[in-house]
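Input chain follows. Return structure tokens only.
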Amino acid sequence: MGGATTRTAPGAREGSADAVLPPPLRPLLGTVAVLAALVVAVLGVMYAGHGAPGRVDRWFVDPTADSVRPPWRYPARVLDFLGEPAGSVLLVGALVAGCLLLRRPRGAVLVVAAACAAVGTATVLKHVVGRTIHGPGNLSYPSGHTAFATALALAVALVVTGRRRPGRAAGTTLVLGASLAAGAAMGWAQVALGAHYPTDALGGWCTALAVTPPTAHLVDRLAGRPPGRRPI
């Protein structure tokens, strides 16, 4: 009887309210991550080495020049700042502090890990794909700003979902809705300011969707692993 308790404790701990990837959402978010990775790969192949907007990009806007004027230009620049080094440090720091105040240290780890994973993956993909905007050297696919904003929103939504433990439908709506809202907002800012093509923003959004759920699962596995025991 004591042995059964010992074997189930790690799993119970990982699936507790401390988990940043709630067990009811794991199958769906796993599927979303796989589909998002496929989209990133397909778009990367389509636009590898390109230096001009594609047909899909031109459906939305001519992304080779600024497409917004005041007053909409101001919120676009604010959003862009939040994805720059100084702004991103401030934003991540504020979110980490919020998680710690709520006594969600695992959530604080996820915020940092998700942001690093999304931006790091986007940076590597930019050099692999080689798509440019406004001339050689300005790598554009996928949008790191959009990946960063989406990953942060998804991480925060996962922390909130794990804390509140709503039903599966409500949790799914919160998590996917937050990631869509953040990705759309930052993607709009990047396209509006002429920094990225629309498909770059889509690739950045999907990059975050592809890497954040596995990152959250890894955080749970490492945080829920008792010392000296084999992980399950």
